[in-house]
Amino acid sequence: MQTATPVPRKAPRPRADALRNRERIVTAAREMFVAHGPDVPLDEIARRAGVGNATVYRNFPERDALVREVVCSVMERTARAAEEALAETGDAFEALERFAHAAADERISALCPMVSSAFDQHHPDLEESRERVENLVARLMDRAKAAGRLREDVELGDLLVGVSQLSRPPAGTGCDTLERFNRFVHRHVQLLLDGMRAPAPSVLPGTAVTMEDLRQG
């Protein structure tokens, strides 16, 4: 007598309303982390998302898991912006400009420094997201250089550091001040981009900043 081999059951797909709730939590957390820092109470995030505290804890039992999800979701949106820029067939530098402004809107620079000391910055999801963004933006910059529109003495780190610094709210900025600060972000990002155009009007001090430089620093 043979025992029938049990057929493995597929994991149930999350319900549509559960997926919507998770998305609302991540969106609310991103907004509040940018405005108030990573220590904002989770019940405040739940209130902003319009869900109960239990829903937040069911999706994200630990704060680090929520922070990681927020950072990964922002990086995913940044990667999509880079892909859209690469799909454009017009001026290569203008495509790079549009990406830089889209990246500034994502405010990822305000999220990355906020992770706690216990946060696993080498989590596979984060590593994959980082690599994807870096590879796409490097291709954008290479294309602009090949077209003679981006100066040769700048690298990926120069662009990402510049956009990050210019789009980072001042420490301790409240919501009202943050909204007023945001009005100047794109003006300053454009000033940065104008300085990266070819032909170069001056010689830059130091050397171009690569991602390896940033990691070692």
- Classified in CATH, the superfamily of the largest domain is Tetracycline Repressor, domain 2
Q: Return the CATH class of the largest domain.
A: Mainly Alpha
End-to-end Cα distance, whole Å, is 67 Å
Overall number of structural domains: 2
Overall morphology:
elongated
Mean pLDDT score: 84
Give the assembly state of these chains.
single chain
The overall strand count is: 0
In terms of DSSP E residues, the strand content is under 5%
Radius of gyration: 21 Å
Helix share, percent:
55-70%
Largest sheet, described in full?
none
Along the chain, the helix and strand elements come as HHHHHHHHHH
* Class inferred from helices and paired strands: mainly alpha
The second-level CATH architecture of the largest domain is: Orthogonal Bundle
Query: Would you tell me which CATH topology of the largest domain applies?
Result: Tetracycline Repressor, domain 2
Helical segment tally?
10
Which stretches are low in confidence, meaning pLDDT under 50 for 5 or more residues running?
A: none
InterPro entries: Homeodomain-like_sf, HTH-type_TetR-like_transc_reg, HTH_TetR, Tet_transcr_reg_TetR-rel_C_sf, TetR_SbtR-like_C
Protein name: TetR/AcrR family transcriptional regulator
Keywords: DNA-binding, Transcription, Transcription regulation
Organism: Streptomyces composti
